[in-house]
Amino acid sequence: MQNLARGIVVVGLVAGLVVACGGGGGGGNVAGIDRLGVTTGTINGFGSIIVNGVRYSTTGATFDIDDSGFGSQGDLEVGQQVTIQWRSTDDGVTRRAETVAYDDTVEGPIASIDLLTQSLVVLGQVVLVDGATSFDDGISPRDLTGLNVGQFVEVSGLIDGNGDVRATRIEQVNQSDDDLEVRGIVSAVTATTFNIKALVINYATATLSDFPGGQIAEGDFVEAKGALVNSSNQLVATEVELEDNDLPGADDGDDGEVEGYITRYVSPTNFDVAGVPVTTNGQTVYDPEDGAFDPIAANNVNIKVEVEGEVNTSGVLVARKVEFKSGDSDDDGDDDSIDGRVAANVTAVTASTLTLAGVTVTVTPTTRFEDQTGVVDQTFGLGDITVGNYVEVRGTPGDGATLTAVIVERDDDGDGNLEGLLRGPVTLIANPNLSVLGVPVITGGGTQFRDSADNAFPDAAAFFAAISDGSEVQVQFTQGGGTIVADEIELED
What we know:
Helices cover 4% and strands 46% of the residues.
């Protein structure tokens, strides 16, 4: 586990360390001296570039897209993982990006898709999909059912404590001769091959970059690129590069901001977050809601936390703050906190909320916005949404009919005839009625009832016998009336 943790640090470009919310409250740099920092995380939006709710000016910044050494902001999409080296003259309140780097986590053909576990396998890597996964508009519908075995995809995401990829964005890409790519921890090294998880990589003719003594070793974190998979199902590598072992680009005294899964845990002063070595001290502030670490080490591996602090001379991030991300630590890949979904025509918009299908949706600085209509460019946000727009929202349910948005997507709507959707926990069960996501739903003679395997229940009574308060269901309904009458309701547990 330690080798896994140490290697995953470089996945800031590709494996998705999401960054702790930045802004003020920094390391107390001397007045007149620029504050430097490294942020690695998910793109929430644009207008310059917004990463985990913090805006970075990109005027004069250098972009490095897919290790090309060049590119522009126009090459980026929300949900992708980027590493930003930045500078601030006002203690981090405003930040100017000096370099912005993006590289995918894995790129290649889909070997298998499992709708039950919401996962797929690409080049031997398990890719987990949840409510925080963005799909590009070339995938229809924008979920796993819009993908096919053999299709080429590019995945950007977080690597968890199991070495699996928690996808934050999946894009369909065209196959070419040089776009097989994977990052991960080396194992099972021979004179000509090594493994990254289930993938065997043949490096007999590959160019090796940055390896001490020119030798690949067990536990190295590498990026392997190749042109083909041979008859032995091995990726034939054209290049294998050893990645860094610390927060990318960070020097002694720089700010470091990281969110990710704990991948190695020895003690509260010796652990890794997404591969970044972290320590705490008497000045570390813990999230008041969740407190400090459980003393049992095994319970801490694969918990998701948010850390901000300062990098020391050994490359260790000395935490000023540790925040626990409740609901994001399941080993099975599910994200308990993002189990609410609503899609319908917008009925009201304010400066910080929108309402659809009776649900009041609150947006935050970290809400991801994406326009699938082609009307607005990268800068799409809440201000571009108007009453009547068809919008899909995924996020965290609150009290009553409320949702805190993680992702907001606007779709083409035509005359408002697209089907409405509600997904979330059940309450107030009283056959033939119930509430979903806090919204009253009526079922009737025309309602179809299905289980999580999409099999029909024999009747409404069987469905209602199978659910209880807190069960997750998905409701499809026809828009137009003031009351939601379910056309289909499916148990998702």
